[in-house]
Design a protein that fits this description.
This protein has 254 residues and is of the alpha/beta class. It has one domain: 3-Layer(aba) Sandwich (Rossmann fold). The protein contains eight helices and seven strands.
């Protein structure tokens, strides 16, 4: 029988309408979590929550732009209002931004990419940690990227933001290490998501080029990242904090 790692835990997921976020919603529900899902895409977010409920799970959807402080505060408040606490959070929402060199990167692209990918994580953690400190414990997993561990050319804002997420994860983990709260990150490599499919169709990247750099010679699945996040959120990872876990098929080991 499969072990249910998150039985009865109240967990919020941002960016839950597609890709890794949506896969995490289904995986976490399968592990017994009660979920509050958030995204700017209401239609797909509501559909994901409904699918979980139809399967006997517990999920609600809240529209939230993670770069909006009030929306993030309302998201955490909704979880607490619905369940009385917030046991865990997967801060997953993110965008890839426009490709191009540092010299080509517009300030608009820089500002928007950091607003979602880094400031969004900060705002989520700010309000999640306030609640977890109040209740005396919890766990947070931030979705960084292998681009938060190594350099990747032609995505300067994305790489800077994801390195920032790793640093912020470590800083927060140290702050709350003695207060029953753990903070970790997952760092996915090339994963078969709608974002990746869009980049492939647009010719921004070539699949054969990625596979040639991928030791396992395949793209990962969103569910593989979701399972790693579920473990980090679970009590099985009770002595892990401040860790940036690569889920990348060995990409960062080159």
């Amino acid at each position: 029988m499969t072990t249910r790692l998150l039985e009865g835990k109240i967990i919020a997921i941002t960016g839950a309408s597609s890709g890794i976020g949506q896969a995490s919603a289904f995986v976490f529900a399968g592990h017994g979590a009660k979920l509050v899902l958030a995204d700017v895409n209401e239609q797909d977010g509501e559909a994901a929550a409904r699918k979980i409920r139809d399967s006997g799970g517990d999920a609600a959807f809240v529209r939230a732009d993670v770069s909006d402080a009030r929306a993030v505060e309302a998201l955490v408040a909704r979880a607490v209002e619905r369940h009385g606490r917030l046991d865990g959070a997967f801060n997953n929402a993110g965008i890839d931004g426009a490709p191009g060199t540092v010299a080509e990167c517009s300030q608009e692209n820089w500002d928007r990419t950091l607003a979602v990918n880094l400031t969004g994580v900060f705002l989520c953690m700010k309000h999640e940690l306030a609640q977890m400190l109040k209740q005396g414990g919890g766990a947070i997993v931030n979705n960084a990227s292998v681009a938060g561990l190594i350099g990747v050319a032609a995505l300067p804002a994305y790489v800077a933001a994801k390195h920032g997420v790793v640093g912020l994860t470590k800083a927060a983990a140290l702050e709350v290490a003695t207060q029953g709260i753990r903070v970790n990150a997952v760092c996915p490599g090339p994963i078969r998501t709608p974002m990746m499919d869009h980049a492939l169709r647009a010719g921004l990247v070539k699949e054969e080029d990625m596979l040639s750099m991928e030791p396992m010679r395949r793209l990962g699945s969103p569910e593989e990242v979701a399972e790693a996040a579920a473990f980090l959120l679970s009590d099985r990872a009770s002595f892990m904090t401040g860790h940036a876990m690569a889920v990348d098929g060995g990409w960062a080991a080159w």
